[in-house]
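Summary for the funding panel

The consortium committed to producing paired sequence-structure records for every protein in the target list. Below we show the first two records in order, beginning with the earlier of the two.
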Amino acid sequence: MYYDITWTGFVGKTPSDRHREIFKIVSEARDLGVKTVQDAISAGKSIAGWEVDRAVRGHIKKAGYGEYFIHRTGHSIGTDVHANGANMDDLEIHDERRILPNSLFSIEPGIYLPEFGVRLEVNVLVRPGSAEVTGKIQRELVTI
């Protein structure tokens, strides 16, 4: 399986308040996507890819940046990076495929403004009864 992640950095002395604000919104959206999956799986509830996308997209939209989130929330991951499982998608398609045990997918929201963009990606592995992020989660904006 692939490890497909995206972290965001800032090149310069100090990120502006706006950079930090957008980073915070995107990280909250990513974490909400993970929690949405974890809560459903641990409760034994069926969940489809579109439901994850809708939760993540709703958070970004509520913050006033919906028009700047221009791609699906995530995709199935397999031995060829993009696999044939459920995609976290209610934008390009309304993916009704269920998220199944022993599957892996990305959650990768982003806000892309004309002057800069932020994208944060993690991978989520689903097991029977649980779901977990594989690898580290970016919690702070990296200054380069």
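The next record, for a separate protein in the list, is shown here:
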Amino acid sequence: MDVCWRDLHDIREPGDYPFRDGTITVTFAEIAIWKDNPAARFQLMRKHPLQERLSYALGRQFEEKPAAAANAEIIYTSSNGDSWSLARDPVSGAAAVMHRPNRQSGGQVSWIEIDRFLRNDPQGPEHQALRQLMEKRGGTATF
């Protein structure tokens, strides 16, 4: 079984957390990977298989699935766990905004054309973050 950040409710600090029928230990390194790549997945491992109380840890990291846009650059992450990244649309190959909603919203990734994204709710913090990134890059959204 593999585990993603959303499976642990987007925790922000390392430590031991209730998980399934026991607890899971999450390290600083795993949190850092998830902050950089919210789609990262790890193998679930039992820490002490012979003990009655179940205790888990995260094992090796799985490679991202192609649809997750391996070269995505995070633009903005909201307090509720939604994230927006600059990425390539897997169908068209064009630069696009990849929206990854939080788990409670379904977590279904979508890609939005940059111009359309900037027209929708132009005052939203994710839109402002994209504009700032574009200004730093001379008015373009390339990566």
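Regarding this second record: The two ends are 33 Å apart (CA to CA). Strands lie at 2-4, 15-19, 22-26, 41-46, 54-62, 73-77, 83-88, 95-100, 110-113.
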